């Protein structure tokens, strides 16, 4: 088993095709097939099921992919570091939307003041997609809200935030301090997209009460939701940090959702096989 075998396997997983993997690696299709067969024979496992001429990765294959991705990635990082030992390094950081809007810019600014020679590349997306990027080694680490879903990811809590209900200042709930899940379920809901941490939390709450989340307005933009709420289109359930300024300006009203405290944890996450460089650790240490 060689690094070449791992690269071929990872590329087949990325493309979903032996033919496409061969084209991207400039390797003949029989050589790609042979490399996969040799891996399966060497480890005594089946990496793919061949169903209706399509490759379906097996559970053993998914396990193997986590290590293969990071072994090849670590080798590439080593080569890049050795060839550019005096050059500027790069740290790839991911962030969920709440953290990306309110915390990440400040962290990056503070880091650049201390380490101006290190380049920061940042991606802001919903928590599910950020987690996927970490798993595939497209990001070195990430700052996310809520819980992670993969056993291959490790996380460390660094801050907390609350989820709150917001409505317009003219809404029937505007004069109240709280609302029950049952009442909320009967109202027009304006929510973030599926995969966002706040949406996932509300779906869990409604599911526990036997309600279904059916938004009348859905957006990846929190500001679009806030503007729609100001226009009286409904209510929402959002992270306090995202709507703090709008609440303080009196543009929207805040309520608590009855039944529990909806405090969320912000965490620094990375793949458990990821090698954390001193630069990465220095950035993580700034997050508090």
UniProtKB/TrEMBL annotation:
- Identify the residues that the record assigns to the HTH lysR-type domain, covering every copy: 1-58
Any one Pfam family here would be HTH_1
Q: Does the keyword Transcription apply?
A: yes
For this protein, the record's CDD domains field holds: PBP2_CysL_like
Family annotation (InterPro entries):
LysR_HTH_N (IPR000847), LysR_subst-bd (IPR005119), WH-like_DNA-bd_sf (IPR036388), WH_DNA-bd_sf (IPR036390)
Q: Which UniProt keywords apply?
A: DNA-binding, Transcription, Transcription regulation
Q: Does the keyword Transcription regulation apply?
A: yes
What are the recorded GO MF terms, alphabetically? Answer: DNA-binding transcription factor activity; transcription cis-regulatory region binding
- Please indicate which superkingdom the organism of origin belongs to: Bacteria
Q: Which PROSITE patterns match?
A: HTH_LYSR
Q: Which family does it belong to?
A: Belongs to the LysR transcriptional regulatory family.
Question: Could you identify this protein by its name?
Answer: LysR family transcriptional regulator
Source organism per entry reads: Youngiibacter fragilis 232.1
Tell me the lineage of the source organism: Bacteria, Bacillati, Bacillota, Clostridia, Eubacteriales
